[in-house]
Design brief:
The chain contains 1 helix and 6 strands. The strands form 2 sheets. The chain has a 3-stranded mixed sheet. A 3-stranded antiparallel sheet has the order 2-6-5, with no helix packed on it. 11% of the residues lie in helices and 49% in strands. The chain has one domain: Roll (Archaeosine Trna-guanine Transglycosylase, Chain: A, domain 4). By secondary structure, it is mainly beta. The two termini are 15 Å apart.
Length: 80
Amino acid sequence: MKVIEKKCYSDHFRKAISGEKRFELRKDDDSVQAGDTLFLREWDPDLEAYTGRSARFIVRYVLRDVPGFGLMPGYCIIGL
């Protein structure tokens, strides 16, 4: 199992830590697998800087390779 660190815009970060948003749509460039840890760091695009807040999530599921359902090749949906 590995830890994958990602930048996360403030609005999406707040929804993820509240539990409202239980997934991440990401480029599939880290070979993320169920059981990995996703470490999200909150990013403020207006300030172009990290806010200092972060959160860790266990990856529960990864959906990839389903262009017939609208998921473009090279992207994945990570269930948290």
